[in-house]
UniProtKB/TrEMBL annotation:
<keyword id="KW-1133">Transmembrane helix</keyword>
<dbReference type="InterPro" id="IPR036890">
    <property type="entry name" value="HATPase_C_sf"/>
</dbReference>
<keyword id="KW-1003">Cell membrane</keyword>
<dbReference type="Pfam" id="PF02518">
    <property type="entry name" value="HATPase_c"/>
</dbReference>
<keyword id="KW-0472">Membrane</keyword>
<dbReference type="InterPro" id="IPR036097">
    <property type="entry name" value="HisK_dim/P_sf"/>
</dbReference>
<keyword id="KW-0418">Kinase</keyword>
<dbReference type="Pfam" id="PF00672">
    <property type="entry name" value="HAMP"/>
</dbReference>
<keyword id="KW-0067">ATP-binding</keyword>
<keyword id="KW-0902">Two-component regulatory system</keyword>
<feature type="transmembrane region" description="Helical">
    <location>
        <begin position="12"/>
        <end position="32"/>
    </location>
</feature>
<dbReference type="GO" id="GO:0005524">
    <property type="term" value="F:ATP binding"/>
</dbReference>
<feature type="domain" description="HAMP">
    <location>
        <begin position="196"/>
        <end position="248"/>
    </location>
</feature>
<keyword id="KW-0808">Transferase</keyword>
<feature type="transmembrane region" description="Helical">
    <location>
        <begin position="172"/>
        <end position="193"/>
    </location>
</feature>
<dbReference type="InterPro" id="IPR003660">
    <property type="entry name" value="HAMP_dom"/>
</dbReference>
<dbReference type="GO" id="GO:0000155">
    <property type="term" value="F:phosphorelay sensor kinase activity"/>
</dbReference>
Length: 483
């Protein structure tokens, strides 16, 4: 339930519950009083007033019915004291009484009101005044009739106003206090539970904010409500998780940066040292023959080319890692594309040492790729196979297969193979199975890392399978066009 709905419900409940409780308690008390008392003043309760007033109305109705029946049968019966006592007991209400008047003389009055009533205070025969009151009594009904001798008769049903007013006065403060207690309790309980359902989640949010401010991003927010605060708590928890992931990623980037600087420093230091050594040899006159001079210059050029390749690969990898390398996708048939790549690479290979072939399906396989970047991936993988070939003639096969969503390209060689422990790390930057980072075979150590970044930009995946001493297969997948 939303906070707005909860507050509306609480407001309505604060109005309805006290009203319902007062009526419910009144009904219980009236029922109890009706069964257990004679409706006297001894109860001294707020609810007694309502019970007494209802009893008065009921007694008046009951009396009129009996009187009307008796008037039709025998009006002189109202001169019989025993009958009048019986009639009085039948209504059984201590605040009221019966008065019988014959002509101008009161012939009977109930003991309860005998001392406070006199004939002049009663209305005349056939009076039009209804419910006449004075300071002592209140006439609820007046029944006029004729006795058998023709005399005028009147029967009055009256209420002792002094006692009734005294009872109401004594109970007025209890009525007010009872209502106030019910209102205070109802409003207090509803306010407590409503505020509790709001304040506890807010306190939890405050604790979480303080934890995050102190750098504790592992503190999980525990808010289970489904209202607006619960939605804020869910958003806060998502923010905490994203902030934690961002910080972890930042820390990882920092570690990667340190590792990258270390690797660059190491890989650049070796060729720079060699270049400096050969230049010093030339300067000191060690290269004193044309053959030595040519050897020194060739070595310097080779080292400088290696450094240039390393810097270019590093620059490309950095752009791929930061997502700043532009990709131009186009739809191609992967069969024709692979055949063109194989033909281009074969142009520069020594076929006496290396044999590169392709195997493609007979039906077209359309993919959406950046042809330049995918060709770089293939050349990096092929180049890696050439660098780590065995003493036998190197055989490289590029095989294209497909499944429902992807075209899968396998580049298989019969080289040295890769140790099982090293296989999971070959796509890491600067990783070489040789821990000494020997650079005599050339390369920047970024070829497969760059290939992985390029394939991931194509929403594909890249992996390797290898058997030491038998060869290696590098696989990568490209999403089919329309998938």
């Amino acid at each position: 339930m939303s906070i707005k709905s909860r507050l509306k419900f609480s407001y309505i409940a604060m109005l309805l519950i006290p009203f319902i409780l007062i009526i419910f308690i009144s009904n219980i008390f009236v029922s109890y009083t009706t069964e257990s008392s004679k409706y006297n003043l001894s109860g001294n309760t707020a609810i007694n007033s309502a019970a007494i007033f209802g009893k008065i109305i009921s007694s008046n109705t009951k009396l009129l019915k009996k009187v009307n029946n008796q008037l039709l049968d025998n009006p002189d019966k109202f001169l019989d004291k025993d009958y009048l006592l019986q009639l009085e007991r039948s209504v059984d209400f201590n605040y009221s009484g019966i008065i019988v008047r014959k002509n101008a003389e009161i012939v009977y009055s109930s003991d309860y009101i005998k001392d406070i009533i006199n004939s002049p205070s009663l209305p005349p025969f056939k009076s039009d005044v209804i419910n006449k009151s004075n300071k002592d009594i209140h006439i609820l009904s007046q029944q006029d009739f004729y006795f058998k001798d023709g005399s005028q008769g009147s029967l009055f049903y009256v209420v002792n106003m002094d006692d009734f007013k005294d009872m109401i006065a004594r109970n007025a403060i209890i009525v007010v206090l009872s209502a106030l207690i019910i209102l205070i309790l109802t409003n207090g309980i509803l306010t407590y539970f409503t505020s509790k359902s709001i304040l506890i989640p807010l306190k939890e949010l405050e604790n979480a904010a303080n934890k995050i401010k102190q750098g504790d991003l592992d503190y999980k927010i525990n808010i289970s409500t489904k209202d607006e605060i619960g939605e804020v708590g869910t958003s806060f928890e998502e923010m905490r998780m994203q902030l934690k992931e961002s910080l972890e990623l930042q820390n990882q980037y920092e570690e990667n940066r340190k590792e990258l600087i270390s690797s660059i420093s190491h890989d650049l230091k070796t060729p720079i040292t060699s270049i400096k050594g050969y230049i010093e040899g030339i300067r000191d006159g060690i290269a004193d023959t044309p053959e030595k001079m040519n050897k020194y210059i060739t070595t310097i050029y080779t080292k400088a080319t290696y450094m240039d390749s390393l810097i270019n690969d590093l620059f490309l990898f950095s752009k791929l890692d930061l997502g700043r390398e532009a990709f131009n996708f186009q739809m191609v048939d992967i069969r024709n594309y692979i055949n063109d790549c194989v033909e281009e690479i074969n142009f520069d290979l020594d076929h006496s040492l290396i044999n590169l072939t392709s195997k493609v399906p007979t039906t077209p396989i359309l993919v959406n790729i950046d042809v330049y970047q995918v060709k770089r991936t293939i050349m990096n993988i092929v180049g890696n196979s050439i660098k780590y070939k065995s003493n036998d003639k190197l055989l490289i096969d590029i095989i294209v297969t497909e499944n429902s969503d992807y075209a899968v390209i396998e580049i298989r060689d019969n080289g040295k193979g890769i140790d099982t422990e090293a296989l999971p790390y070959i796509f890491d930057r600067f990783y070489r199975a040789d821990s000494s980072r020997e650079t005599s075979i050339g390369g920047s150590g970024l070829g497969l890392a760059i290939a992985k970044k390029i394939i991931e930009e194509h929403e594909g995946s890249i992996w390797a399978e290898s058997t030491l001493g038998k060869g290696t297969s590098i696989f990568f997948s490209l999403k089919k066009y329309g998938q």
